[in-house]
Amino acid sequence: MHRIVFLDRGTIAPQVVVRRPAFEHVWQEHEKSSSGQILERAEDATIIITNKVDLRTDLLAKLPRLKLVAVAATGYDCIDVAAARERGIAVCNIRGYAKTTVPEHTFALILSLSRAIVPYHQSVRAGRWQEAGQFCYFDFPIFDLAGKRLGVIGGGVLGTRVAELGRAFGMDVVVYDPKPAAPTPSLVPLAELIRTSDVITLHCPLTPETAGIIDAAQFRRMEKKPLLINTARGGLIVENDLYEALTGGLVAGAALDVTLPEPPPPGGSFMRLAALPNVVVTPHTAWSSVEAQQALADQLIDNVDAFVQGQPRNVV
Q: Is the peptide bond before 263 cis (omega within 30 degrees of 0)?
């Protein structure tokens, strides 16, 4: 009989139903698990479900019965996939579930910056409208998206949908993808995207090749002083370099849904960024519409069922 341990059920909202697999099994779930609790909880597990709990080489070596790690997310950088393969442990992830929620959140962040939503809201609450003494005031510039260039880094499902929304807003869209599936007219080199874009948005995975893809050197190449949006992974941007770019006028504003680590430490670089007036922050919620979370939970158990039936899917 399979023993299934869900190490961090609390990463999925309580109102979302995580159904039980169709085969005979023992199910155990925990709201969250620290690194020191994993071995005790999963020592006899044949299947581990995790969203963000790290499973590295030394730990995998101590889980002799483990056959599958089902990641409750698209990103799987918390798993040492190479070590898992060496031990015959399959790793599968979730795909396609966020093709509505992340692009919509991305554009909510773009619009929040371009329309100065947050500073105007804060100023109204502070009494500025009454102080102005007229029907409106112009403390914060507002910019239209139509006619601007949108640079999308990452040409997968999410990047493609963001590009579609950008075109619907009348934007000129260019895309850079480290490993494009096929050539398209909108594909450009990264250097051109960085140099010419008015808005840059990240939708690529965090890999050794993409870690720190936006750093001080890239900020210096940004001729348009763009808005920078990150709903992908925090490690894609060098946060200290972003702070210098924002305070030095190389970037007009930033909207960040992710950082590394999560949550950010109280005195760290991310919180310093969050305090800037031209920065909008959300706590890694771009993926988390109720509809998307339910689709994720359903696909998660579909992946587990398929593996046990001898038809593994979404294997990474």
A: yes
